[in-house]
Amino acid sequence: MLFDYHLHSDFSADSKMTLKDICETAVQKNLSEIAVTDHHDIDYQDDQIEFNLDKNKYLEELEKYQNLYADRLTIKKGIEMGMQTHILNQCDQYLKNDFDFIIASFHTAEKKDLFNGDFFKEYQQWEAYLRYLKSILEVVDNFDNYSVIGHLDLVRRYGYYETTPDLMDNNKAVELIQEILKKIIKNDKGIEVNTTGYYIGNGQNPLPSIKILKLYKQLGGEILTIGSDSHSKDQIAYKFLETIALLKKIGFNKLTTFTKMKPTFYKI
Ligand SMILES: [Zn+2]
Ligand SMILES: [Zn+2]
Q1: What CATH code is carried by the domain that includes residue 15?
Q2: What tens digit of pLDDT does each residue of 58-85 get?
Q3: How is 14-51 classified by DSSP, letter by letter?
Q4: 36 CA to centre of ligand 2 in angstroms
Q5: What is the pLDDT confidence band of residue 132, given thresholds at 50, 70 and 90?
Q6: pTM for this predicted structure
């Protein structure tokens, strides 16, 4: 059974896929379940684009598609929440108990955007990476309303440095990643394996990297979702079979789906 737990419809400003496109493609690709996870980023610091989700309309549409596809595809109400340390109460108020599945993602740090490069302007490469990890740690220490952390090592995709080292290549980063993962595990949360790593950048690793996934396994991490982070039809379930084979090789033997924030485990 295949589940894609990270998909963007045209409710996200950076996707043109309709919910119908997503559902049809998921059925064609033999997926049994999907979570649609459109963006909501509160206090996002890029003037060029807004990630504001009209929650009521979105949930209403998802329910419509849940009914339309009831005999073919399980559709979960998900969201990708852009987390920042100063908006945790606002995130809670927005999310309430309205979703099956919440990805907590870090598209910014210290109120600055990764994608447009603002966050990296004042820092050396590793300093930027460490500061990014610290902001994730602060959030997992103080926030509970999420299912998994999205693309944990996203920071190394941006900054436009000459190299994109694995975050596990630096001892201070390893310590921070360990603290983050321990906290996630203790709080019964998980991480996602995001397959954009195979189609954006150098293409060698999913996000997070294999080294981080190995550490998560060593520390006892069990809650793991897999998502393509698709913004177009061809990306849906991208490299899932290879990724599942990789996860098995690392030692994982199950994947997770969510219903009303409660995990269900499936053997892989
Ligand atoms: Zn994201
Ligand atoms: Zn996404």
Answers
A1: 3.20.20.140
A2: 999 999 999 999 999 999 999 999 999 9
A3: T----HHHHHHHHHHTT-SEEEEEEEEETT---TT---
A4: 10
A5: very high
A6: 0.97
Burial class (CB in 10 A: 0-12, 13-18, 19+), 76: buried
Q: How many domains does the chain have?
A: 1
Taking the centre of ligand 2 as the mean of its atom positions, its distance from the CA of residue 12, in whole angstroms, is 9
Closest ligand, as measured to the CA of 79: 2
Has residue 146 got a pLDDT over 90?
A: yes
- Which secondary-structure segment (H or E) carries 266? strand 262-267
Distance 265 CA to ligand 1 centre (A): 24
Q: Tell me the CA–centroid distance for residue 22 and ligand 2, in Å.
A: 14
pLDDT by residue (tens digit) across 151-203?
999 999 998 888 889 999 999 999 999 999 999 999 999 999 999 988 887 67
The interaxial angle of helices 240-250 and 210-218, nearest 10 deg, is 40
> 196 C-alpha vs ligand 1 centroid, how far in Å?
10
Residue 201 is predicted with a pLDDT of 72
How far does the centroid of ligand 1 lie from the alpha carbon of residue 68, in Å?
A: 28
- Domain of residue 37 covers 3-267
Could you tell me the distance, in angstroms and rounded to a whole number, from the CA of residue 66 to the centre of ligand 1? 24
Query: Which H or E run includes 74?
Result: strand 74-82
